[in-house]
């Protein structure tokens, strides 16, 4: 049944957010529900189980579509490619106990908030649903469900100060508490019985249950019992693991669910209460000392220093400042733009230090509570992980469907054979159903994850932690890595120049020196200076110290808590006792600068600013900026130095520091000079990047540095060859219009004249890793240019990204956007950076690797405890090995079930089958042990210049499976037919072979012991109605040893895994299993043969079987090595049949190779010209050759 997208029946939830969903309204119908209950009873619960797996079918069967306003049940569907459904019941929240009478109601009704808009007027009830721990209420006026538990986004900065600055009234707080629910991230430990039921109802175990019931019906008692024991063991281990995860997660969040906080009540003053009573809009007072934050809150007065390592993995303290009291109509987030987080204290982070305002108070307004908070969001991402859309898993499902179709053919064959031979209907049905349990390997899902589990353990030993194991296989496909950190600040103390470019290198007392002393966000924590490594190195070079015992500094008539900086023992003589930092405007990645207001002891107040030189220069008076500013900047950045601009001005007395806006402070500055710092490559950077380059994995620099510095670092790191050209791409939006332009020009290092707009928007391009051809080029662009290109020249963006290597001055949102754009080109993108500014990009990338000291950060799927990019090739190696292991296991499981399936179908021709212990031996002693040990093979230490296949339907893999199926089928049919041609063969006398060869006299007891179902008497001519036959013995022995052959043949070693002989456990297992199988072939022990349902055959026939197996091994191994694994052969076939990769970036690359006009140099395109090109040719660039080729794709 489909969905009717009628407006009242359908809506979207969380529009534009990561967890966006479609919501449909339904009303339960009694007659439908009664029919469904009857169906549950008549189907013995099968229908109920089906509805459990498919909740949408449950809703469609029990309910009828209706408007969302009338709905008592809603059906949710994710908007991603998975389209996952979930069912939720609508509940009603009564607030009549809070609003005692209609006289109380006007105060709520006048409030322009969701709390008043959701209130049903006569009944005083609120309609709600809860989805993934988030509560939504029905907005009566907007006719939609809206999230509660968060302050509305429409509030302006001034409104937040005025409306919530004095706190909520008790009645407002009570109403919000009832509607929003408690401020807790409640993750209860799931009871074992719930986990057990959920696991048992998994389709895999339901299929196992069906199989076991069938085997019991067929008297496979021992085999069914063994499978039950294994399934129970597997379920127990899974439930234990889930229980441990639940306990661990509960411990993670319980610490801040009940913290005592101080809140301000309107007209009632301050109150102490437990944090779970907090609601959005509450005003919280933060006291001195360390404290955990129980909610997200907006700082409205004072300043805080917090440790956000729980969220970002970065242990550097972060400074939070108060929300400005801006008098405009913009919502506060829009007004603050990307810097809004500078004013937000996040739940779960730790407040290290507070600095009060002029009244000594630090106040914050509760922004979000419970699971709406930053920590709640991260906990929800663990509870409800986003499914991975990886080709391997999709192909595995398709292949499983093919096996089911394969089994259906076998079922038809079985029914025909047994029915024509006059078997009972019940027996025919059992035999037909048995084919499904043989053809479809129930252990396939478990087998595919085995390699992942072992890889995760190996990564953990190497200091790489993973919170999303599904992404490990994706790491094997990575072909592009974005790096944020390729340099280190451990050797940053090399100051080349300070002031306005003097020849000497001295640091005399003066404004430039004072800027270095105070313009930072460092703090003293436990006797150690902490903060940004760049700030630490800069400050240490001054030999001044931070006085952490600073008290209150008098400023005018009011006192404020401030930081005092004093000369240290090694400091040069200074004319002041110290400098007090009165107010700080923290560094903003959007503004690319930071500022402080400071005052010398007994002196005047001054402003000091540092940041990107191009940005700082624009804030300074033109006459103070040297005429050779740009050439000097280019001179230093071309050498790879980190260049910081310094500026200052004196403040007029009168206005308090805290009352000044950032715009007032950062204007009419005096330019002081450039601070030059050496930004050396980390020792491991160049070898790592070379290793990735040799493996044909693109490396891209995404940095906050100046564009020229970034290009130089990229060259020093080997990302850009000295012989390659670097083309600067500059895009500018024309102010006051909807037009924009983009310019391409070569970037020259020795250029000293005006180098164009080297502003913070500049960014260095990325290069494609191809063979080193003369004339290869790399694009470089800034974050600003990237933004303009993405907005106005989106058709050009893919072509630029194809050869872009360095991106400079990138903001966090631009980094995320860049990763997504690369993914649109069909790149498998890895992102390596810190957990703070790169948090978004780390989550968006196929594999995000956070370099953090934390053991595991929820900021990214992977966390490397060692802050080194050497973890990247290590992760790719392990990912490739895990991917190949998954393919090996898949091929083996598919072949094993097919071999068994073919053997059984052959025996069905004679109304026979494998015996109980024969199945048991193949499934447990052979396949289970192989499945557990095949994945032990470790990753190969060298990265080869190509990736393992990513899909099961690739020609080499399919050919390998099909050929080995044919080899197995051929060998089994040959054995089946040849044994019937032997002179000693008898269809009725299963002892004729050994009697004729050994002249053995059989007694009745031995005959009885050889018969499974009571072969009567001692008459050797009596037909055995069990499983014993010459065909059974031959086919079973051949198929069993054939399983060992394919295990050996499919166990790939080089180039992605270590040679198979290094997996000692697996080799020992194979040798042991082969020894046992050969023993079964050549042993002549009556009791053993009786148990295994085997019969005695002449030694010559046994040798013949071994020879058949040897030939099969030789042929399989030869085909696998000479054809399947012959990369040169497949490349030749691709070339011969003109097969080209369908990846977007490959197709675009082929097109651009034919375009002689690409890249354009010293050219400028305007928006109008490009628009005409798009309309006429649908191409991104106005070159007709390119456009015609692109259209032909």
TrEMBL record:
Is ATP-binding among this UniProt entry's keywords?
yes
Subcellular localization(s) per the UniProt record = Membrane
Q: What is this protein called in UniProt?
A: Cation-transporting ATPase
* Family to which the UniProt record says this protein belongs: Belongs to the cation transport ATPase (P-type) (TC 3.A.3) family. Type V subfamily.
**What's an example of a GO molecular-function annotation for this chain?**
metal ion binding
Instruction: Outline the extent of the Cation-transporting P-type ATPase N-terminal domain.
Output: 147-220
| Enzyme Commission number(s) of this protein | 7.2.2.-
Looking at the record's lineage, which domain of life comes first? Eukaryota
